[in-house]
Structures are given as structure tokens and as C-alpha cells.
Amino acid sequence: xxxxxxxxxKEVVSKPNNVNAKQSKGSDRTSKAFDEDTAVFxxxxxxxxxxxxxxxxxxxxxxxMLKYEKALKxxxxxxxxxxxxxxxxxxxxxxxxxxxxxxxxxxxxxxxxVAPKYSKAxxxxxxxxxxxxxxxxxMRDVNHVLSIEPNNLTALEIADSVKKGL
Length: 166
Prior knowledge:
Blueprint: H1 2-14, H2 16-57, H3 61-73, H4 80-96, H5 101-114, H6 119-131, H7 135-148, H8 153-165
């Protein structure tokens, strides 16, 4: 039993390049399989997002939220669709009424962790802050959007509205 193990050790020591080549091919296969699996999950997530969007259009905000939550679970944490889904969830909370605005703000915060310059999330959060009479925070978000997109009409509208409240 000891001799075959010894022979293998000699082969490995005498041909380190072959071993490394085999390892890199193996890791390529692993990463390729990982990429394929990830792509499948991303596609499934996009289908769930579309289903959620249809439910949102039908004003089934709770149903839409469930689809968005399922879609989120299929994505890598830093995937850009995480920001879009979180923003959609914020929109659902906003449609549910003023009492849900703090949850909408939280969803916008989570979206902005993934995409800090995502103007839709910034503007939704600004609208929530404005409705909750946190005009300073609303103005901060609007100014952030205007620094990125100076001609953003929604940002300009919110800015006018907030200035009237100040």
C-alpha cells in the first residue's frame, strides 16, 4: 500500500506543471458551472420580477412583493437587479399607504447599497421623506440626483415641492 502512494508523490514532484494544468482546468470547469448556474438563477429571478411587475400593474401590491422577494433570493447580493427589485418593493410599500413609508425608505436604502447612484431609488426615498415631513433629507436626495442628472424632471419637480415646504 505504501509504494503506490510513493510513486504518486514522485510523479507529482517531478511534473508539477502537469498537476497545475489539471487543477486550473478543473477550476475552470467549476467556475464555468458556477457561471451557468448563476445565469439560470438570474433568468428565474427576471421571470419572477416580470410576474411581480404584472401584479403591481393590477394593484396586487402584496402579491408583487412576494414575487420580488423570491426573485431577490435567487440573485447574488451585488447584482444590479437587487437594486431594481428593492426599488420595486419600495414602490409597493408606497402604494400601501403613508404608514408603510418607513419600510419603503428601508428598501430604497438597500437598493442604494448595491447601486449608490440609482436615481429612481433616490427619488422614491425623497418622496417618502417629503411625505413624512423630513424635508432636509428629501432635499439631500434630490440634490444628489441633480448632481448626477441635472435635467431630471422628476428631481426638479420634487425639489420645487420641497422648497415650498421649507
